[in-house]
């Protein structure tokens, strides 16, 4: 995937945070914390994974449109906004 440096850094940061959250869930299970608290953390991880997917999809689509078409930057920005609307 051809990523710009900001997107790559953001994805790496998000994944690092996810690693920490997963370690926290393991600790919570070992410490027999409440199921509600654990499920809340799992839900948070799922949301963050969706954010990572969104960043990757937007970056990929944007790069492909700019490289493979004659679309203007403004048109690509509009497509990016549409992706934001579709992927929540």
Structure in words:
- Helix 2 packs antiparallel against helix 3 (73-86).
- 2% of the residues are buried.
- This protein has 3 helices and no strands.
- The protein has helices at residues 5-30, 35-68, 73-86.
Offer a concise description of the structure.
The chain has 88 residues and is an all-alpha fold. It has 3 helices and no strands.
Share of residues in helices: over 70%
Task: Return residue spans where pLDDT drops below 50 for at least 5 consecutive residues.
Answer: none
Number of strand segments = 0
Strand content: under 5%
Structural class assignment: mainly alpha
What is the CATH topology?
A: Methane Monooxygenase Hydroxylase, Chain G, domain 1
Question: Helices and strands, in N-to-C order?
Answer: HHH
Q: Write down the overall mean pLDDT.
A: 90
Q: How many helices does DSSP assign?
A: 3
Q: Which features would summarize this protein structure in a list?
A:
88 residues, mainly alpha, Methane Monooxygenase Hydroxylase, Chain G, domain 1, elongated
Map the helices and strands.
Layout: H1 5-30, H2 35-68, H3 73-86
Helix pairs in contact: 1-2, 2-3
């Amino acid at each position: 995937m051809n990523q710009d440096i900001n997107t790559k850094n953001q994805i790496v940061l998000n994944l690092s945070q996810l690693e920490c959250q997963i370690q926290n869930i393991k600790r919570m299970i070992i410490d027999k914390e409440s199921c509600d608290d654990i499920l809340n953390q799992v839900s948070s991880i799922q949301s963050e994974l969706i954010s990572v997917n969104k960043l990757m999809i937007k970056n990929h689509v944007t790069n492909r449109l700019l490289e493979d078409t004659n679309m203007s930057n403004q048109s690509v920005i509009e497509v990016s906004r549409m992706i934001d609307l579709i992927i929540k």
